[in-house]
Structure formats: structure tokens, C-alpha cells
Automatic annotation (TrEMBL):
SUPFAM superfamilies referenced in this protein's UniProt entry, alphabetically: Oxidoreductase molybdopterin-binding domain
Protein species of origin: Microtetraspora malaysiensis
Top-rank taxon, per record: Bacteria
Name of the protein in its database record: Molybdopterin-dependent oxidoreductase
Ranges for domain Oxidoreductase molybdopterin-binding: 315-444
Feature: compositional bias, Basic and acidic residues: 221-231
PANTHER family in the record: BLL0505 PROTEIN (PTHR43032:SF2), PROTEIN-METHIONINE-SULFOXIDE REDUCTASE (PTHR43032)
Regions crossing the membrane: 47-74, 110-131, 152-174, 186-204, 251-269
Length: 448
């Protein structure tokens, strides 16, 4: 019952006004894409949209999970490591990133980047298939429709933002961003994930029903001559005045699938060592560089990071903070040396496994009077102005017997671009935490 007389009439009156206003707007759409007969492709329909949606339903959660793991891999709870210090509650899932297996970050970040690139044609096809919905007129006939449209705009806007900024970051176009990539990509990811979850909850029953309405096998056997529009649907995707088909659904699916396979083939080589590296044409640092021991990828050269060769010469010393020890490279080479084959994997998706030699971080911790397993390490570099000129390593990372202060790679001295005279190599750490041109190590009790 209404709380006061006339309340029920007021609600109904408001709804009636909304419907009358929506009906008037609906009968007077602006010209162009807001008119239903503007969209004439005979291929659009709930079934085709659902096929693309099913692929994204499988792929996007993998991209989201591996992306969130990438952020966790930075151990952002350690001092100096948080690329997004304002993340707050978004860091609820952080955990002490493991060092085993050594290839884990290589796989998760490789999957994040390669799958993201591979799904671009599918995402574009999905957006093409539902674009009439973005121009529905009037924009909302009811409050519920207004909420649905708002969630759709967040979904589409979030997807475009995440994919565009991700691709630009992969291509190392950092300077084009008027903002910091890391927080923008993280916040955008959570907005997109929330909108995606709402969209799936609302549309999953309809998607299942649409997928059952047609046989994929039959569509893949149907050529241009047999291509017909789908029956009218409640989603309003089927053209009201369809044109003659110039492409079959089989052709469209083949074109999108072929585009995804092409992108996959031109990028997957950046995560693999061997001949396939030559096929990584879409990766700026994924290809072969030569056959020498130091001929492998670098994101930033010594000159780009302001490392003066004079500072890495005979006068260079590694400082162990809190002690009087200033170790020359010769003194470091006199310590017990260990050799391990470990990958470097970078956030841009490229990775490579090389063989590194140097003293263990655990041994250096002992030299500094610390107990491995009970101390973290704060690493400082000679580089100037870089976002990762300093980094913290967890107690677990310091204690791992494969964590090295590498002095040599593949049997040769490090080149200057690869961190000469010394660099950090930690199993399963993001590439930027394998700090190059190390000048000081500080071993300290665990944070918090």
C-alpha cells in the first residue's frame, strides 16, 4: 500500500510521463547511426554476437587474473615497490610472491600479453556486432535501461582503454601517456572487471539461448549464397532493413580467427627462446639480436638511463650498507661463484632464459652480518631518474639459493647495457626488479 494518498498515482504518473517521453524521442531519432535502418549488415544477430562473446568469456578472465598476478609479482607491499601506492583496498589479494617455479612470471605475463594481443580481432568483431546498441534511441526508456546503458558504456570504454594502453605499453610508447601507466591500467582494469561481471550476469542466459539457436558446424559449412539474416531478436541486433550479404558468417569467423592467429604468430616468439624469436615482428624487443653471450634483449640501455661508463670503471665499488665493506668487482669474483639458467621476463611480455654467474645474495647478506631468510634487501642502482632505479626484495627472494648478484652471463662478463659491473638476478621476479648497475645493497629486517 502507498505510504500516503496519491503516492501510487504519482509513481504511475511518473512512469507514464517517462514512457510518453521515451515514445516521442523514439519516434524522432537524430539522423545517421541513431536510426535503426542505418545498420544494414545481414550478419548481425544474437548468435554471432554470442559466438564472439563466448571466446571473450573464456579469454578475458585469464587476461584479468594474469594481469592482477603481474601486479602482485612486484611485491608492492615492500617499500619502494608499489607502482600504485593509492591502490588501497584493491591490494586485498597481495601475497609474498614465490621464487618457485622460476618460470612462473614468464608464463603468466607472457599469457597476459600474448592472449591480450590475440583477442584484439575478436574484441573488435564483438564491438562491431553490437555497435547498433550503442546508438539506441532514445538513450533510455526507463531507469533500468539507463542503468544497463551506463554499464555497457563502462564495459566498452573499459575494454578499449585497457587494450589500447596495454598495446602502447608493450610497444614502449610510455611518453604518449599524460598519466602514469601503472595506476591507470590497474584502476581501468577493476572498472572493466566490474562492468564485465555485471554484463555476464545479465547476458549469460541470453547468450546460452542464442548459441543454441544455431549450429556452429552448419554455419561453417554455409557459403555466401546460403547466408540469411537471423530472425528478429529482442536485443535489436538484427537489421530492420538488411542489405544483400557480401560476406558469409563463415567468412567473417574465418577472417577474425585468421587475424587472431596471425597476431599470435607474430608475437608469441617473444616469450620463447629459439628460432621462433625471428617471427616476433610485433614485439620491439622480442627478436634475435645476435649470437654473442650478451646478444639478448634489453629494455633500456645504459646511456638511456644516464649510467656514465666512468662510474662503472675500476673505481666502482659495491657498498654493503651498515658495514665498512666496499667490494670491488675483483673481490666479488673472489667470492664463491654460482651459475644458474634463469629467465628474465618483462611486463611488456618478452622473456628470455640466460645462464648467469655470480655470488649469492644470501652470502652477501651474511657478509653484512645478516641472516638469510630473516632480512629483505633494498637495491639501489647507478641509473638516474628511472622508475625502477631502486627496488626491494623479499626475505624469500634473498634466501633463495638461485638469487645472485650476477657478474657474468653465458660465460662472459656482463655488457654495460646488461648491467655491468653487477646486476640482480632473482628467479620468478619481474624484469625491472632484476636491477642493473647495482651500487648499494641494504639488508634489513622484514617490513611490517
Amino acid at each position: 500500500m502507498p505510504d500516503q494518498p496519491g503516492e501510487e498515482h504519482g509513481r504511475k504518473g511518473g512512469e507514464s510521463v517517462w514512457r510518453r517521453g521515451g515514445a516521442w524521442l523514439g519516434s524522432h531519432p537524430p539522423p545517421g547511426p541513431f536510426r535503426p535502418d542505418f545498420w544494414r549488415s545481414p550478419l548481425r544477430g544474437s548468435w554471432l554476437t554470442s559466438v564472439f562473446g563466448l571466446v571473450l568469456l573464456v579469454g578475458i578472465p585469464i587476461i584479468a587474473i594474469t594481469g592482477l598476478l603481474s601486479y602482485a609479482a612486484y611485491n608492492p607491499w615492500l617499500p619502494g615497490n608499489d607502482t600504485t601506492p593509492e591502490s588501497g583496498l584493491l591490494g586485498f589479494y597481495f601475497f609474498d610472491w614465490p621464487t618457485w617455479p622460476a618460470w612462473l612470471y614468464r608464463v603468466t605475463q607472457g599469457a597476459h600479453v600474448i592472449l591480450g594481443l590475440t583477442l584484439i580481432p575478436v574484441l573488435l568483431a564483438k564491438l562491431w556486432s553490437v555497435i547498433p546498441k550503442l546508438f539506441t534511441w532514445p538513450p533510455a526508456r526507463s531507469l533500468a535501461m539507463a542503468v544497463e546503458r551506463a554499464s555497457l558504456l563502462l564495459l566498452v570504454g573499459g575494454a578499449v582503454f585497457e587494450f589500447v594502453t596495454g598495446v602502447l605499453n608493450i610497444q614502449l610508447f610510455y611518453t604518449v601517456f599524460p598519466f602514469s601507466f601503472y595506476p591507470a591500467h590497474l584502476y581501468g582494469a577493476w572498472i572493466f572487471i566490474a562492468a564485465f561481471a555485471v554484463h555476464v550476469a545479465l547476458k549469460l542466459p541470453r547468450m546460452v539461448s542464442a548459441l543454441r539457436s544455431r549450429s556452429l558446424r552448419r554455419e561453417l559449412r554455409t557459403g555466401l549464397d546460403g547466408t540469411r539474416p537471423e530472425p528478429p531478436d529482442p536485443d535489436g541486433l538484427v537489421a530492420t532493413r538488411p542489405a544483400e550479404p557480401s560476406l558469409s558468417r563463415r567468412g567473417l569467423l574465418g577472417f577474425v580467427g585468421g587475424g587472431s592467429l596471425l597476431i599470435f604468430g607474430l608475437s608469441v616468439g617473444q616469450t620463447l627462446d629459439g628460432p621462433l624469436r625471428r617471427t616476433a615482428l610485433l614485439a620491439p624487443h622480442g627478436r634475435m639480436y645476435g649470437l654473442g653471450p650478451n646478444d639478448f634483449q634489453v629494455n633500456k640501455s645504459a646511456s638511456a638511463m644516464g649510467v656514465n661508463p666512468m662510474s662503472t670503471g675500476p673505481g666502482w665499488r659495491l657498498e654493503l650498507a651498515g658495514t665498512d665493506l666496499r667490494l670491488s668487482r675483483a673481490e666479488l669474483l673472489a667470492l664463491p661463484q654460482y651459475t644458474y639458467a634463469l629467465p628474465i621476463a618483462c611486463v611488456e611480455g618478452w622473456s628470455t632464459q640466460q645462464t648467469w654467474t655470480g655470488p649469492r645474495l644470501a652470502d652477501l647478506a651474511r657478509l653484512a652480518g645478516a641472516v638469510p631468510g630473516r632480512v629483505e634487501a633494498y637495491v639501489e642502482s647507478l641509473e638516474r631518474g628511472g622508475a625502477f632505479s631502486e627496488a626491494s626484495l623479499s626475505a624469500r627472494q634473498v634466501a633463495d639459493h638461485r638469487s645472485l648478484l650476477a657478474l657474468r652471463v653465458n660465460g662472459a662478463d656482463l655488457s654495460l647495457d646488461h648491467g655491468y659491473p653487477a646486476r640482480i638476478i632473482v628467479p620468478n621476479a619481474p624484469g625491472v626488479h632484476n636491477t642493473k648497475w647495482v651500487r648499494r645493497l641494504t639488508f634489513r629486517p622484514p617490513s611490517g
